[in-house]
């Protein structure tokens, strides 16, 4: 058994009771767990603030002063210990609400302290509650170093004295005995090439940095290693699959040339051309394609899908395009049918509402190969749907589909697995995509077609509703249509939000002269479709909806999007909703409605929406606000349980570590070369995790 698997209770001074607490509260079971519990910040013991310079906006800071007077004030739950600390510039009040008895015995009058905490102001007086205190002693006076601060819990701190300092002492003890057991986990070549600090030094310096430079180096080293092993695992899977799975070759493109020359009515954007080239290269490789295509709403993914399908058709293979809803499937069909007709290609449609007689014909045509392309919904997956030679499957808005559904599509060609293209408008930051979808190839359309008018986005308070409604009226009278979106109907009655029904009633009262559609999640699919169709055909002017309209719907004449209680939506969701407008020639608007009371994060989200239309910039900010674990579909992702790397900030390290992992696999796929011994040994020492690396939906 390795040293780092030793149970934490064996560490000097820990014992059974504290070991249990560490396990329960912090998940620290072994020496390895403790040594990898890196500090979340450091105290710079060289910097002190003058008390007079403190202000509200400062983060945690430290001051140095003499303690003057301490007394317990108040009764019962309001009881608190108050002390004052003074330096040459002024006085600071320290307050404790918990652990009074203990603190009372600790703080000494007339003692000089280093006080660390977050300054706040109360009646114009500087205050810190629950600061950390450290006595200034002769020995420590001249010292300059960064002191680690460890995460712990209120329970551990207040009832068991396991505060950051206590953890620090454990780490000191552990590092003393751990040194001979720390093995370098990267190859000498990687350490040299990326100028990495050794593992042993990095573990020492991350806990007790001797300077900020050494701390930087230690952090870089540990982040690099962490991301390197994540990427190595993902890339190995990808390589394995590429080796084992062959794909049909689609090299000839006569119809495509015809299409470009004679039928395509607009110029493809540079980004579209680049993506089509990526796909064509995959088609010529002889390996099965597994590609994720990311493109902001309105960036023109559908035409890329069609061109890919055309390449398949040119080489005698069938293809299908699967959409998550009937409305979307209809839209794709209508949009692509005209092109297919012009090119003499048979394009069919299959959805839940296709009639039995139609289906029978379609099934037959698919089996015979007469039908070249198929657009549809989940109905495509049914076992009765069989192809003569399915060569390409495309999934639109892929987060709606599960892994099981994708594998069903694969099985539609027993001879050779079809190429797979998944398309998503959920802009995932590149760093996150590389980790989450590390086993897929990723293409990005990062450019909108020329001539689009950027959507004008504004934030309005509920008190201005009358003005907003007047604006909607004016727009509708100009011939436009309007979406009004509400947060999902909540189970909780107590929440102070207008729900859809209230909203509908007030809209109906305000606009007696217009027709209104309603769509929400509790309606049956047919009812939803019926209402959507009415809106599409312009029989209704206003669509009141919950977020069900989020995905893909294209109503070019709808040019105004009102989002009610906009503070309740995440940034990415707001951006998705806004993407429903801005699809026609007219100037489009997005109006974000809120009350006056807004949190800081809500304000940031609203300001971001008003400032930019760029989906990737928005996704990056969203990632920073929420952290990666919160992003759609990634909650259960073991991939994101990172110890030190931060996907929102460490994009550059991620890119470098991925390149390093790729190069390693190119040179030594089985990791059998002696110079890669460290890496092989490290992988073998890792616990076999239950992480599902193939999860991509
Ligand atoms: P999304 O990426 O959101 O699925 P679509 O494929 O629906 O976007 O495209 C949105 C609109 O832009 C469609 O009407 C499409 O015909 C049009 N379009 C796509 N590419 C271009 C282009 N290069 N130039 C002009 N219009 C384009
Ligand atoms: Mg689309």
From TrEMBL:
It catalyses: ATP + H2O = ADP + phosphate + H(+); Couples ATP hydrolysis with the unwinding of duplex DNA by translocating in the 3'-5' direction. Keywords: ATP-binding, DNA damage, DNA recombination, DNA repair, DNA-binding, Helicase, Hydrolase, Isomerase, Nucleotide-binding. Residues 282-445 form the Helicase ATP-binding domain. GO terms for molecular function: helicase activity. PROSITE patterns: HELICASE_ATP_BIND_1 (PS51192), HELICASE_CTER (PS51194). Residues 467-629 form the Helicase C-terminal domain. The keyword Ribonucleoprotein does not apply. It is an enzyme of class 5 (isomerase). The keyword Amino-acid biosynthesis does not apply. InterPro entries: ATP-dep_DNA_helicase_RecG (IPR004609), DEAD/DEAH_box_helicase_dom (IPR011545), Helicase_ATP-bd (IPR014001), Helicase_C-like (IPR001650), NA-bd_OB-fold (IPR012340), P-loop_NTPase (IPR027417), RecG/Mfd (IPR047112), RecG_dom3_C (IPR045562). Its EC number is 5.6.2.4. Belongs to the helicase family. RecG subfamily. Plays a critical role in recombination and DNA repair. Helps process Holliday junction intermediates to mature products by catalyzing branch migration. Has replication fork regression activity, unwinds stalled or blocked replication forks to make a HJ that can be resolved. Has a DNA unwinding activity characteristic of a DNA helicase with 3'-5' polarity. PANTHER family: ATP-DEPENDENT DNA HELICASE HOMOLOG RECG, CHLOROPLASTIC. NCBIfam families: PRK10917.1-3 (NF008165), PRK10917.2-2 (NF008168), recG (TIGR00643). This is ATP-dependent DNA helicase RecG. It comes from Hymenobacter cavernae. The gene is recG.
């Amino acid at each position: 058994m390795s040293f780092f698997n030793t149970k934490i209770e064996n560490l000097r001074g820990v014992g059974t009771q504290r070991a249990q607490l560490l396990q329960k509260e912090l998940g620290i079971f072994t020496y390895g767990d403790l040594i990898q519990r890196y500090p979340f910040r450091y105290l710079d013991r060289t910097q002190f603030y003058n008390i007079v310079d403190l202000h509200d906006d400062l983060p945690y800071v430290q001051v140095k002063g003499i303690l003057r007077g301490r007394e317990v004030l108040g009764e019962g739950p309001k009881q608190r210990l108050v002390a004052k600390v003074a330096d040459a510039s002024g006085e600071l009040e320290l307050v404790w609400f918990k652990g009074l008895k203990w603190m009372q015995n600790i703080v000494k009058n007339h003692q000089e302290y280093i006080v660390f905490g977050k300054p706040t102001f109360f009646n114009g007086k500087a205050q810190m509650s629950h600061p950390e205190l450290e006595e200034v002693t002769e020995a420590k006076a001249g010292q300059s170093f960064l002191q680690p601060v460890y995460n712990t819990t209120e329970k551990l701190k207040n009832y068991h004295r396991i505060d950051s300092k206590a953890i620090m002492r454990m780490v000191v003890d552990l590092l003393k005995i751990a040194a001979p057991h720390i093995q370098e986990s990267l190859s000498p070549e990687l350490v040299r090439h990326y100028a990495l600090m050794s593992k042993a030094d990095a573990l020492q310096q991350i806990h007790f940095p001797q300077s900020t430079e050494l701390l930087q180096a230690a952090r870089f080293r540990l982040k690099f290693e962490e991301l390197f092993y994540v990427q190595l695992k993902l890339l190995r899977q990808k390589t394995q699959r590429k080796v084992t799975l062959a794909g049909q070759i689609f090299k000839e493109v006569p119809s495509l040339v015809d299409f470009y020359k004679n039928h395509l009515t607009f110029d493809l954007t540079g980004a579209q051309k680049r993506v089509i080239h990526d796909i064509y290269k995959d088609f010529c490789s002889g390996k099965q394609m597994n590609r994720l295509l990311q493109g902001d709403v309105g960036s023109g993914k559908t035409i890329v899908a069609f061109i890919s399908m055309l390449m398949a058709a040119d080489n005698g293979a069938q293809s299908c395009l699967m959409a998550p809803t009937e409305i979307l499937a209809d839209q794709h069909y209508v949009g692509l049918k005209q092109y297919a007709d012009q090119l003499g290609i048979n394009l069919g449609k299959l959805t839940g509402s296709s009639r039995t007689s139609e289906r029978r014909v379609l099934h037959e045509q698919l089996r015979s190969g007469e039908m070249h392309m198929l657009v549809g919904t989940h109905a495509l997956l049914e076992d009765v749907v069989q192809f003569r030679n399915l060569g390409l499957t495309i999934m639109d808005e892929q987060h709606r589909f599960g892994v099981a559904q994708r594998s069903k599509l694969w099985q539609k060609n027993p001879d050779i697995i079809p190429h797979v293209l998944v398309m998503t408008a959920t802009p995932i930051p590149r760093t996150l995509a590389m980790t989450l979808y590390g086993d897929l190839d990723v293409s990005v359309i990062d450019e909108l077609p020329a001539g689009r008018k950027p959507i004008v986005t504004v934030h309005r308070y509920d008190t201005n509703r009358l003005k907003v409604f007047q604006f909607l009226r004016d727009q509708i009278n100009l011939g436009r249509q309007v979406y009004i979106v509400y947060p999902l109907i909540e189970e909780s009655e107590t929440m102070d939000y207008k729900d859809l029904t209230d909203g509908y009633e007030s809209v109906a009262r305000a606009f007696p002269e217009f027709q209104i559609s309603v769509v929400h999640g509790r309606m049956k699919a047919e009812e939803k479709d019926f209402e959507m169709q009415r809106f599409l055909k312009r029989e209704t002017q206003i669509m009141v909806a919950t977020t069900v309209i989020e995905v893909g719907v294209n109503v070019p004449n709808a040019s105004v999007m009102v989002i009610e209680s906009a503070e309740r939506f995440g940034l990415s969701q707001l951006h998705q909703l806004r993407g429903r407008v801005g699809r026609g020639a007219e100037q489009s608007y997005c109006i974000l409605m809120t009350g006056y009371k807004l949190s800081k994060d809500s304000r940031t989200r609203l300001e971001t929406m008003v400032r930019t239309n760029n989906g990737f910039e928005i996704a990056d900010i969203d990632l920073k606000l929420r952290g990666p674990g919160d992003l759609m579909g990634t909650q259960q992702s073991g991939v994101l349980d990172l110890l030190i790397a931060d996907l929102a900030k460490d994009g550059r390290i991620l890119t470098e570590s991925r390149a390093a992992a790729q190069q390693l696999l190119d040179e030594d796929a089985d990791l059998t070369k002696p110079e890669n011994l460290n890496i092989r040994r490290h992988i073998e020492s890792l616990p076999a995790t239950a992480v599902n690396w193939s999860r991509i939906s």
